[in-house]
Amino acid sequence: MSTQTGATDPYESVYHRYEPHRAGIPKLGTYFKELWKRREFATEMSKASMRGANSMTFFGQAWLVINPLLLALVYYFLLQVLNPPRGGGFDAERFSHLTGGLFIFYFFQGAVGTGANSVVGAGKLVLNTAFPRLLMPLSAVRTGFFRFLPTVPVYIIFHILAGNPWNWVTFIVAPIFALLIAMFAAGLAALFAALQVYFRDAASFLPYVMRIWLYCSPVLWTIDMIQGHAGARALAPFNPLYPLIGGYGEALQNGAMPSLHIWLAAIGWAVLACVIGFGYFMSRERDFAVRL
């Protein structure tokens, strides 16, 4: 909370005193109405972030594709050694699964990582400008999405080379799961952005968490591959990315409709992340100016 003090003399200094504000959820109707009115502000923040990272240049966008593509090649050759395909040779289907999974995981990782630093990295903006602070992590998710778009045509090439099917599930259901992943990322971005204000080292652990999360998610493996492992099958539902990326992969790469429990789990995790992440962020955002 900010209070203004100073004399009426126009040449005398004006001081802003920031005091702790009691945590609490603001009026949601008013808050989200203001959030929608300021959506262009989030768009411009996202564009500025992309310009700063050279993501809008040719070579900047090329690196967005090359980086996960090289990682896909590394993991592919590793899997070839551990579990070689029947008959040998290049397994285009396996490689298309790796590229599709890594591209969407990089979107998720980038959105959460950038969102976690969005408040602390914009200290002066928080102190001097009045706007719903939730725009900052949401802007990071938008940035992550537009950094993800250049990878889509590249994946389509591998999809065609692998002979993967094309049907209405591929074009309708897969984007729905991508939207659910974006919602899940937005909730986590808001949660970590608020935590980063109070615990400055919180974002330092994210790269390690994301690396472990990558190995535990259906990126290097598929949902079908764990059906014969009772332990893995029992633990999988506790991983939010299992239904989210698993359902996305089934729809995108196999053209298969995900099962009902995958749908319910994916929607549940996405909504839960938004409720918890947005709720905690909004309850604390009026205290950010004091902590920064």
TrEMBL record:
Q: Name one GO cellular component term.
A: plasma membrane
Pfam families linked: ABC2_membrane
ABC-2 type transporter transmembrane domain sequence ranges? 55-247
User: What Gene Ontology molecular-function terms does this entry list?
Assistant: ABC-type transporter activity
List membrane-spanning regions: 56-78, 98-123, 144-162, 168-193, 205-223, 262-282
Q: What is this protein called?
A: Putative ABC transporter permease protein
- Keyword list, A-Z: Cell membrane, Membrane, Transmembrane, Transmembrane helix, Transport
InterPro entries cross-referenced by the UniProt entry: ABC2_TM
Q: What are the recorded Gene Ontology BP terms?
A: lipopolysaccharide transport
| Family in the record | Belongs to the ABC-2 integral membrane protein family.
Topology of the protein relative to the lipid bilayer: Multi-pass membrane protein
Report the subcellular localization: Cell inner membrane
Identify the main location: membrane
